[in-house]
TrEMBL record:
The lineage of its organism: Bacteria, Bacillati, Actinomycetota, Actinomycetes, Kitasatosporales. It comes from Streptomyces chromofuscus. GO terms for molecular function: alkylated DNA binding; DNA-3-methyladenine glycosylase activity; DNA-7-methylguanine glycosylase activity. Signal peptide: none annotated. This is DNA-3-methyladenine glycosylase 2 family protein. Residues 1-22 are annotated as: Disordered.
Length: 323
């Protein structure tokens, strides 16, 4: 287990700062380099995500709806130690899951670079691990919101809906952090509120179908990623793109590469073969040498910074909330 080196003896309830409510604490000593931004960054849905904050001191904050209830988690790294502090009914669950969240179940030693650009990216980013959140809906719902729209539109919808229908994060969370709505709350959002958030009927209906079977979907965290994707795709409106984007975060799935993406095939094609017009089939062919680790390879390619020259956006931006 490359990240779970050992646990430091930090008693629960130790005050962190004067004037702030102390939470429950767990400290880990990683077995190797660990970059919190790289590991936890995929869980952030835009710079204004009300469930995620990165603060100037290097800490990462998450507000989560756990199986035990709402919880807030602060993760910080100092002197070779990673410290988690949590508040709310979900605090114990968040601290129990902390090693997996930091990539303890990920094994990057299984990855063998086959291209120079990938090898250089791995060398420059030794702290990359694939997070495993253990939560499905918190990745599934924003992934549905991102279907067939620009990221800015999707981020705006997530931000507006969570702030309006979620609940304030427990503990001393920085800024205005919120826990995402519970499944029943999502199900009761009026149609005009989806409209105001810029969410069309198709995406809203897919979310409503998903939250009706929320318990069954959350159970997929005990399945392997392939089986989990198959169950997610039983929900009408959840296809291969959405299921892959979900299990990459909820399961830390190293091989679940995203297909059906507007940009990823061209980026992979350009980086590995100089082909900016690559489609999914070309991308999968280029990633075949990384079978078992294709998602990790794609992430390293994205981190390499080698992207094709920009063209005018092919997807028009719309705002149904103004119609």
């Amino acid at each position: 287990m490359p990240v779970r080196g050992g646990e430091a003896a930090v008693p629960a309830g130790v005050p962190r700062q004067a004037g702030r409510t102390a939470g429950r604490v767990r400290a880990l000593v990683p077995a190797g380099p660990l970059d919190l931004g790289l590991v936890l960054g995929p869980l952030r849905r835009g710079p204004g995500d009300p469930t995620f904050r990165a603060t100037p001191d290097g800490s990462v904050w998450r507000a989560c709806l756990t199986p035990a209830g709402p919880g807030t988690l602060r993760v910080s790294a100092h002197g070779g130690q990673v410290r988690g502090e949590a508040w709310g009914p979900g605090a114990d669950w968040l601290l129990e899951q902390l090693p997996d969240l930091l990539g303890a179940s990920d094994d990057p030693s299984l990855f063998a670079p086959r291209h120079r650009i990938v090898a250089l990216a791995r060398h420059r980013r030794p702290g990359l691990r694939l997070t495993r959140s253990g939560l499905v809906l918190e990745s599934l719902i924003p992934s549905i919101l991102e279907q067939k729209v620009t990221t800015d539109e999707a981020y705006r919808a997530w931000r507006l809906l969570v702030r309006k229908f979620g609940e304030p994060a427990p503990g001393p969370a920085p800024g205005r952090m919120y826990v995402m709505p519970a499944p029943r709350t999502w199900a009761l959002i009026p149609s005009w509120e989806w409209h105001r958030a810029g969410v069309d009927d198709k995406r809203a209906s897919t979310i409503l179908r998903a939250v009706r079977v929320a318990a069954r979907l959350e159970q997929t965290t005990r399945m392997d990623p392939g089986a989990a994707r198959a169950r997610l795709e039983v929900v009408p409106g959840v296809g291969p793109w959405t299921s892959a984007e979900t299990v990459q975060r909820s399961h830390g799935a190293p091989d679940e590469v995203t297909v059906g993406d507007l940009h990823l095939p061209g980026i992979v094609g350009w980086a590995l073969a100089g082909d900016r017009d690559a489609d999914d089939s070309v991308m999968l062919s280029l990633l075949e040498p990384y079978a078992g680790q294709r998602h990790r390879a794609a992430r390293l390619i994205l981190l390499s910074g080698r992207v094709p020259p920009r063209r005018a956006p092919r997807m028009p931006r719309g705002d149904i909330g103004r119609l």
